[in-house]
Amino acid sequence: MDSIDSSTSSYKIELPFYEGPMDLLLHLIKKNEIDIYDIPIALVTEQYLEYIEMLKVLNLDTIGDFLVMAATLMHIKSKMLLPPDPEEDAEEADPREELVKRLIEYRKFRDAAEKLSGREQYYSELYDRDASIEGLKKEEILLEVSVFDLISAFRSIIVRVKDKEFHEVTIEKLNINDKISDIMEKLNSNKSLTLQQFFENMGSRYEMVITFLALLELIKLRLVKVVQKNPFSTIEIYSN
């Protein structure tokens, strides 16, 4: 098995901007075009737990917050499986009610905070919807890609890779700083790459994870742009 040096195995990465469990829930609601007042808790819980598994693999330092919310979702799911109490009002008996209130309040304060802090400008600088990127036509509009979109896309890539597709096992240490250099070198040579292209010819899943962590670090440092030309289209990476 490929080895990872101690500095890498204990590496804790923060998301490029804080994205917590409430943000993930709102992301899933938006992604699935769900009515926030009528959340299909089983579906959302299943997808939420899938993200949790990837967050564990990535060793993100906010994992504890996500686990608390996961427990809350599972509790709500279990309560919804119980027969309703005929003595309680139907609306008051809805186990989702408190969560919905929290989500609406959180979204309200988050939107206000974004305006006050100029975070919208931060997003435009990070993902650069309208900036001129070499290789793109002027009329093309670039769409923002969230961290959760990236994690979801990475999960789709890594689960499709079969063990037999990896190279012969070699003993080497994987270093995030080296991967950062590799990514920047590739972008300088190719102008842009799709997310899929970053993980071609990888020697192991460990190497794929380290490469993804390096990409997150570059996003945090604003050294790369992460964009889509259309919703659900290929995610592309450009040097900033």
UniProtKB/TrEMBL annotation:
UniProt keywords, alphabetically: Cell cycle, Cell division, Chromosome partition, Cytoplasm
Predominant subcellular localization, coarse grouping: cytoplasm
GO annotation, biological process: cell division; chromosome segregation; DNA replication
GO cellular component terms, A-Z: cytoplasm
Keyword Cell division belongs to the record: yes
Keyword Cytoplasm tagged: yes
UniProt xrefs under Pfam families: SMC_ScpA (PF02616)
Record's subcellular location: Cytoplasm
Gene3D superfamilies: 6.10.250.2410, Structural maintenance of chromosome 1. Chain E
Domain of life assignment: Bacteria
Function: Participates in chromosomal partition during cell division. May act via the formation of a condensin-like complex containing Smc and ScpB that pull DNA away from mid-cell into both cell halves.
Family as reported in the entry's similarity comment: Belongs to the ScpA family.
Complexes and interactors: Component of a cohesin-like complex composed of ScpA, ScpB and the Smc homodimer, in which ScpA and ScpB bind to the head domain of Smc. The presence of the three proteins is required for the association of the complex with DNA.
PANTHER family: SEGREGATION AND CONDENSATION PROTEIN A (PTHR33969)
Protein name as catalogued: Segregation and condensation protein A
